[in-house]
C-alpha cells in the first residue's frame, strides 16, 4: 500500500534536509553543476547546523582552523589556530551569501515525515511548511544535532534551570549559583572552565574520564593573516601540511594501536603537570587505551578541577530531586541549575523514525534490526533515490569532517549525473553490495583502537558494531566515492527514455 501524493505538494528534483556544512555544501555543488531544481529545508532560522545550535561558553573547534573549511572556500581570516564557534558560524553565513544559495532555502521548516511512493517513484515529504515531492531525497542531518538526555530518575522534577549544552539558555543568569554539569565529554571540557569563572559552586558528574591532550592553540598575527590572504597558494600549502599531519594519526587509530601509546604518555604527563593531588590524578586518569573514545584537547580542564569551588563527582547519579542531585553513595548535593552535557543521539537519531522506504519499512526499524548500515555511507537498501551526505561509518576521530562531507557531496553529484546520462527514474543499492561493503568495514574495524582499546563508546550501535567511524585514511574514502558506481545498484529507466529506446543500464 503506497501513500497517495498530495495534489498540492510542490515538486523539486532534489530535496535536501539540513543546512550545516553538509547540506549547505550540497546546495553549493548543485548550483555550481547547473542544477537549479533543488530545495533545502532547515528547521533552524539560518544555516550552520551544529555551529548555529552550540553557543555554549567556550564553544571551539578541535580541528585546526585552516583544515576546517570547504576546500573551495578557504578562509584567510581565522583569528586563531583553533577557531571559536561563532567564527565558524560567521564563515558559514558568508559562504551561503557568496555562493547565492539562500534563496534555495526554507528556514524554520521541520521535516515531519518522508515516505517513498512506489507508484509515483518519488519521495513524498511532509514538513511544518506543507508537503513536497522529490525525485531524490538527501538527508543532510548531522550526527550531533539531536541531544541525548540522561535517563535519571526524577530529572523531570527539577525546579531550577536545566538545559542541554547544545540548547544553551543565555537568559539564565548562573552568576554565583550552585551549578551541576553532567558529563565530561568534548562539550563539557570546554564549558566547565568558563562556568567556573562565574558560578558560586560547580559539581561535575563524571562517568568515565577522557584522555586529554594539550591544546596547541594561539592567535594569528596580522602579518600572518595578510600573508595567507595575499600570497598565492600559501594557505593551501598550510592546509595540506595540516591534512597530512592529521592523516598520520590513522596509523595508530586504525592499523597499529600500539603507536598511540606514545601519545598516551604525553597525555599522562599533561595530567601529572596539572594535577598535583594523587587522589584527583587517579580520578582523571582513564582506564582504557587512548583513542578508544574521542581524544579531547584542553589546557584548562585539569586546573579548573583543582579550584576550591569545583568538585569532581565520580559516583553515579541515583536520582534528581527538585533542588538537588543524589549520588549512589547517598550524598545529596543541592544545586540551582543543571547543564546536561551528555552528547547526542548518533546511532539512534529520532530523524530515522521519520523516513519510510519500500514496503512501509521505517529506517529506524531497519537499522535497529540490522545495525546502522549503508553503502559507502550514502545509500541504504530498501530506500530508493535517497542519499546521505554524511552517513554511517563516515565519522572521524582525527581530522576534518568537512573533507568527508565533500566526499559525500561528490558521490551525490555523480549519482545525479548518472541519472541524467542513463535517463534513470530510480536507483537502489543492492542488498549484496551493501552487505559485502559493511562486512569488509567491520572486518577492518577489528584491528582498530576503537575495538581493541577496552572501552564502550558512543561510536558503537546496539549490536556492538562501530557504525560511526571510517576505519582508514580519508583519501581512501575520497577515492571510493569519486564516482557513482551503477553496478552496485538496481535501477529503473524513466518511461520517456524507455519509449525512445534508452541504452541498457547495469542491473
Describe the structure.
There is one protein chain. Residues 1-6 and 499-507 have low confidence and may be disordered. A hairpin with a 4-residue loop joins strand 4 (111-117) and strand 5 (122-127). The chain is globular. The relative contact order is 0.14. The strands form five sheets. A seven-stranded mixed beta sheet has the order 3-2-1-6-5-4-17. Strands 7-16-8-9-12 form a five-stranded parallel beta sheet, with helices on one face. A three-stranded antiparallel beta sheet has the order 13-14-15, with no helix packed on it. It contains 16 helices and 19 strands. Helix 1 (21-32) packs parallel to helix 12. It has two domains: 10-146 and 345-499, 3-Layer(bba) Sandwich (FAD/NAD(P)-binding domain); 155-340, 3-Layer(bba) Sandwich (FAD/NAD(P)-binding domain). With 507 residues, the chain is an alpha/beta fold. It has helices at 21-32, 50-53, 85-98, 186-195, 222-230, 234-247, 250-255, 260-274, 278-284, 301-305, 363-370, 401-422, 431-445, 449-452, 474-480, 495-499, and strands spanning 10-17, 38-41, 105-106, 111-117, 122-127, 130-139, 161-164, 178-182, 201-205, 212-213, 296-297, 310-313, 317-321, 324-327, 332-334, 337-340, 355-356, 424-429, 489-493.
